[in-house]
């Protein structure tokens, strides 16, 4: 029987374990924090649960427009303790569900730390396990090892989090109350999502963005549309501003920018990216190739350069999404256990930023098209022309669609809208299944619906024979 040891129990690790167990391997998962990993316990799941509370507050905005009288947003109060308790409760419940699923599948789940042992045993690897608590270190022999150790918030040496005023995104749920004035340092996806949620909850928010716009890696039209919404709702956004240092001053914090300006607030959230958890695993000593920044180098079936050692998820830096981590983990096991496997394809991975409004993307990007890397025709339809959007008083947002110039094959899209995470699916299915804009355009959508704008965009891209 194949002996599989998986280091890390996040989406990469636990999805891999489920596949390996299904294929009758003997599987051990060693996890330091809890089943579900950082994704479930401190990153994705908690942040989205927190955002769900912010969306409830948003429901009270602009009610007068609909003829509904309320005392306005000022009368809505958010009980941070209750919100945070809910966040932690849901995360722990999700972790417990995953643990149960793993145990039921026959996976051995070990709470503790693991690293690669120094000597190989012929074709077998050795993993050293340090169990949590007072357990004694021991080693396990494995025919296959999957490194799925995730990543940790990057720290700036001049802005060290203290858990009270200077925070990582993993510490915000321990605050006894909402910040009065939150300075978010870093306007990537993480910074933008938290800035959006706190703003909705009535917190004064300043967003320190080192680039000329928020979310520099996202579609520029979409990022700028969301930046406009943020500004209109009162967020202060400091573009082209790099935080040099963050320090405690009295009852608050002071953020010093690289041009010498200073911004003061009650709390600072440091969201300047993540670093892979690969330092203490004995990888280099084992001969496993690491790329710049400490990411494990893998191919499209999750193999490292050392036979029998695979890696998946955020520790590889391929595309830091839970969905991609899970697929890399599954692919590793299919490959290791001799199943037919399709190498990882990133072209059809949909991604969503959970700001208000949301920003969802799939397929080719505007940058690739503009740079001439991918020839495409495109259309961008503002939601303001959509009947349902008018009823819901949605002025912001759009649907953008890209197709191949001659065949009309759908190759990508962008949606900025409430619940764009749900609206992107038809475009993702079109990209995945090589559908053309004609096929999309002939799909009858619900009237009135926001998804009607997707088929409308496809209709605008149809080529007419007589043209
Ligand atoms: C704030 C935030 C929000 C996000 N929201 C989303 C989202 O909405 N959708 C989405 O798709 N992605 C989201 N992501 C990204 C997503 O969380 C990651 O892509 C995902 O967690 C990666 O899974 P993983 O299995 O690689 O690692 P992780 O989930 O980080 O799990 C790795 C685990 O390995 C453990 N570990 C590390 N070293 C060892 C060791 N030596 N021994 C034992 N265990 C070890 C760690 O403790 C950790 O629990 C978000 C990220 C952040 C930061
Ligand atoms: N909804 C989701 O799926 C979701 C949510 C959060 C994160 N993620 C994943 O995590 C990845 C990483 O996102 P992220 O936002 O955590 O990190 P990031 O690296 O994408 O963004 C960090 C930002 O901070 C800026 N920065 C760095 N130092 C700075 C300084 N001193 N002052 C001001 N700004 C500074 C960087 O220029 C960068 O724009 C994303 O690409 C995404 O794949 C996904």
UniProtKB/TrEMBL annotation:
The keyword Nucleotide-binding applies. FAD binds at residues 48, 314. Keywords: FAD, Flavoprotein, NAD, Nucleotide-binding. Residues 350-458 form the Pyridine nucleotide-disulphide oxidoreductase dimerisation domain. InterPro entries: FAD/NAD-bd_sf, FAD/NAD-binding_dom, FAD/NAD-linked_Rdtase_dimer_sf, Pyr_nuc-diS_OxRdtase, Pyr_nucl-diS_OxRdtase_dimer. Signal peptide: none annotated. Belongs to the class-I pyridine nucleotide-disulfide oxidoreductase family. This is Dihydrolipoamide dehydrogenase. It comes from Micromonospora tulbaghiae. The lineage of its organism: Bacteria, Bacillati, Actinomycetota, Actinomycetes, Micromonosporales.
């Amino acid at each position: 029987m194949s002996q599989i040891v998986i280091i890390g129990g996040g989406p990469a690790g636990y999805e891999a374990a489920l596949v390996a167990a299904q294929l009758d391997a003997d599987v051990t998962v060693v996890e330091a924090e809890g089943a579900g990993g950082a994704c479930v316990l401190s990153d994705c799941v908690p942040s989205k649960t927190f955002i769900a509370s912010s969306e409830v507050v948003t429901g009270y905005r602009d009610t007068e427009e609909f003829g509904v009288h309320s005392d306005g947003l000022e009368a809505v109060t958010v009980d941070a303790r209750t919100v945070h308790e809910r966040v932690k409760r849901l995360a722990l419940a999700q972790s417990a569900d995953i643990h149960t699923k793993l145990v039921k599948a026959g996976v051995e789940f070990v709470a503790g730390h693991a690293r690669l042992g120094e000597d190989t045993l012929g074709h077998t690897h050795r993993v050293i396990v340090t169990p949590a608590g007072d357990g004694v270190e021991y080693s396990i022999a494995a025919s296959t090892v999957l490194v799925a150790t995730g990543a940790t918030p990057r720290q700036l040496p001049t802005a060290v989090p203290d858990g009270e005023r200077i925070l990582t995104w993993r510490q915000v749920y321990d605050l006894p109350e909402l910040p009065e004035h939150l300075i978010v340092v870093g306007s990537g996806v993480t910074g933008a999502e938290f800035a959006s949620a706190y703003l909705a909850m009535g917190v004064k928010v300043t967003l320190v963005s080192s680039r000329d716009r928020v979310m520099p890696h996202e579609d520029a039209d979409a990022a700028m549309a969301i930046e406009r919404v943020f500004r209109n709702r009162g967020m202060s956004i400091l573009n082209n501003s790099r935080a040099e240092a963050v320090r405690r001053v009295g009852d608050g914090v002071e953020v010093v920018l690289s041009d010498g300006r200073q911004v003061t607030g009650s709390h600072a959230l440091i969201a300047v990216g993540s670093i892979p958890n690969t330092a203490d695993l004995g990888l280099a000593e084992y001969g496993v190739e690491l790329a710049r920044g400490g990411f494990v180098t893998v191919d499209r079936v999750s193999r490292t350069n050392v036979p029998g050692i695979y890696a998946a998820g955020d520790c590889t830096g391929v595309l830091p999404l839970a969905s991609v981590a899970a697929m890399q983990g599954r692919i590793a096991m299919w490959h290791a256990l001799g199943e037919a496997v399709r190498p990882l394809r990133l072209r059809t991975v949909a991604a969503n930023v959970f700001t208000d409004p949301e920003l969802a993307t799939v397929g080719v990007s505007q940058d690739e098209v503009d740079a001439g890397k991918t020839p495409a025709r495109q259309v961008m339809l503002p939601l303001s022309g959509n009947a349902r959007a008018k009823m819901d008083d949605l002025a912001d947002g759009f649907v953008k669609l890209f197709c191949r110039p001659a065949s009309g094959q759908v190759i990508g899209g962008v949606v900025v809208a409430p619940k764009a995470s749900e609206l992107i699916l038809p475009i993702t299915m079109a990209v995945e299944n090589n559908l053309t804009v004609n096929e999309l355009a002939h799909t009858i959508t619900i009237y009135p619906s926001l998804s009607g704008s997707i088929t409308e965009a496809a209709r605008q891209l149809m080529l007419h024979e007589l043209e």
